[in-house]
Design a protein that fits this description.
Shape: elongated
Order of helices and strands: HHHHHHHHH
Pfam family, one: PAP2
Distance between the termini: 56 Å
Largest sheet: none
Strand content: under 5%
CATH class: Mainly Alpha
Keywords: Membrane, Transmembrane, Transmembrane helix
Protein name: Undecaprenyl-diphosphatase
Number of domains: 1
Radius of gyration: 19 Å
CATH topology: Vanadium-containing Chloroperoxidase, domain 1
GO molecular function, one term: undecaprenyl-diphosphatase activity
CATH architecture: Up-down Bundle
Organism: Brevibacillus gelatini
Length: about 200
């Protein structure tokens, strides 16, 4: 069995669960399509805590995503496959999507970039974030828009990017200078009653 056959077989094992347990389809649809909004809200809330460490963490997460997305685009030029629903018959397709190169998974890159960064800064809470990233990756297979290899590649690219960014970005003086400038500007525009406390 070659690599593509293994990839298709693994896809069928996961995607066919949607036919076997259709009651779970709505949950996986929501995870696949809408958790990105919950992630955006959580990132904003981390920033609004006004904790310096949280803000460095958010900066690292955004830098990780930028790096991983760039590497993902390069990977996409080296390998091409369309979405499973465009290449295979009898796919449990729950999401309508334009046909293009699905390698690697952009959703997986996004979630593993942020969730891995959160884990590096907050090990206990980070476990829950990593579980969320895994669930999102699996959901993209469940709804029929990605192969397991698309998801695994996206996860590995993001994990590697997060590790590099975590080691480099917090050490850069320019990052701390820009954050200090931002916080000075923030203090200047915040109401007086909020200047002396976090919220």
């Amino acid at each position: 069995m070659d690599a593509m056959q293994i990839n298709v077989h693994a896809f069928r094992l996961i995607n066919d669960l949607g036919k076997e347990y259709p009651a779970l389809n709505p949950a996986f649809y929501v995870i696949a399509e809408y958790t990105v909004y919950a992630l955006a809200v959580c990132v904003l809330l981390y920033w609004m805590t006004r904790s310096y460490q949280n803000r460095v963490m958010v900066v690292c997460a955004m830098a990780t995503f930028a790096l991983a997305e760039g590497l993902g685009k390069i990977a996409g030029t080296l390998h091409y496959n369309q979405q499973p629903f465009a290449e295979l018959a009898n796919v449990n397709q729950l999401v309508q999507k334009a046909v293009d190169n699905s390698f690697p998974s952009d959703h997986t890159i996004l979630f593993f970039s942020f969730c891995m960064s959160f884990w590096l800064f907050k090990r206990k809470a980070g476990i829950l974030w990593m579980l969320l990233a895994v669930c999102v990756g699996l959901s993209r297979i469940w709804v029929g828009v990605h192969y397991p290899a698309d998801v695994i590649a996206g996860a590995l690219i993001s994990i590697g990017s997060a590790a590099i960014v975590f080691l480099v970005v917090p050490q850069l003086s320019v990052v701390h200078s820009l954050l200090s400038l931002y916080e000075k500007a923030e203090r200047a525009v915040l109401p007086a009653r909020l200047r002396s406390k976090d919220f």
